[in-house]
Design goal:
By secondary structure, this protein is mainly alpha-helical. The chain is built from seven helices and no strands.
C-alpha cells in the first residue's frame, strides 16, 4: 500500500470513529466502566471496516458509503448493548430474535466470513446470563464477534496476589558500650568502702607487711642475763681478765 493509500485509510477510519462517537445510544443503560470496552471495540473495528472498503474495489469509497458502514457498525454495537441491558426485562424469544439480528449485522459489517453465534451458543447464553455481570457478558460477546486478525479488547488484568507480609525489620540490639574492664585492685590495696583504718586494721596491715619481708636466719640462743651468775661462761680467751 502506497503512503497515499495509507493516508486515505486513516481518514476513512477516523470518519467512522467520529460517527460512532456521536452515537450516545451505544452506551445507553451501561455505566461508564461497562460501556468503555464496547466503545473501544467499535473504534478498533472502524479500522477493519475501512480496510474492507479499501479492498472492495479499485474505486475509493465516497463519504456516503463510509457513513453507511459506520451506521451499520453502530447498529451492531447497539444490539450487543441491548441483549445485555434488557436481558432481565425481555423474554427468551426477544433475545433470540435480537441475536439473529446481531448475526445479520455482523455479516453486513465484516463480510460473509464474519463471526456469528450458533443456535446452541445463543440458547446457552440465554440460560446462563443470570450468573454473569453486564461487564462479563459484554466482554464475552465482543470477543466472540471480533473478526479473525482484528484487534479485540483485552480482558481486565486480574489483581496480582498480595505478597506475603514480611516481618518488620527489627533493629539489632545495641552493642554494649566499649567500656574497658576495670583493672583488678593492687594486692593489699584498700578498696573504696573498706572500714576506716584503726588499730585492728593497722595490726592486720603490719602483719601483712612483716610477712612480706625476707626471712632472716635465726640468731643463736643467748642465756638470760642475771646479776652475779657465776655459772655464766666467759668468752674464750678472756681468762685472767
Amino acid at each position: 500500500m502506497t503512503p497515499f493509500q495509507a493516508d486515505q485509510l486513516d481518514r476513512w477510519t477516523k470518519q467512522i470513529q467520529d460517527a460512532l462517537a456521536g452515537n450516545s445510544g451505544l452506551r445507553e443503560g451501561l455505566t461508564d466502566d461497562e460501556a468503555l470496552p464496547l466503545v473501544n471495540w467499535g473504534a478498533e473495528q472502524a479500522r477493519t471496516v475501512a480496510q474492507r472498503l479499501a479492498q472492495a474495489g479499485e474505486v475509493a469509497p465516497d463519504s456516503e458509503q463510509i457513513d453507511n458502514s459506520a451506521y451499520t457498525l453502530g447498529r451492531l454495537m447497539a444490539r450487543i448493548n441491548w441483549v445485555v441491558t434488557y436481558r432481565n426485562k425481555k423474554d427468551a424469544a426477544w433475545l433470540t430474535r435480537t441475536f439473529a439480528k446481531i448475526n445479520q449485522l455482523s455479516r453486513e459489517v465484516f463480510g460473509p466470513d464474519a463471526p456469528v453465534l450458533s443456535d446452541d451458543e445463543i440458547a446457552a447464553w440465554i440460560a446462563d446470563h443470570p450468573n454473569h455481570s453486564n461487564a462479563e457478558l459484554l466482554h464475552e460477546l465482543i470477543a466472540r464477534l471480533t473478526p479473525k486478525g482484528a484487534a479485540s479488547p483485552e480482558a481486565p488484568p486480574a489483581a496480582p496476589p498480595s505478597p506475603p507480609a514480611e516481618p518488620p525489620d527489627l533493629a539489632p540490639p545495641p552493642a554494649p558500650p566499649d567500656t574497658p574492664d576495670p583493672a583488678p585492685p593492687a594486692p593489699d590495696t584498700p578498696q573504696l568502702g573498706d572500714r576506716p583504718a584503726g588499730p585492728e586494721r593497722n595490726t592486720s596491715l603490719l602483719g601483712r607487711l612483716l610477712r612480706a619481708l625476707p626471712t632472716l636466719p635465726e640468731s643463736p640462743d643467748e642465756p638470760a642475763e642475771s646479776d652475779g651468775n657465776e655459772d655464766t661462761p666467759h668468752p674464750q680467751g678472756d681468762e685472767g681478765l
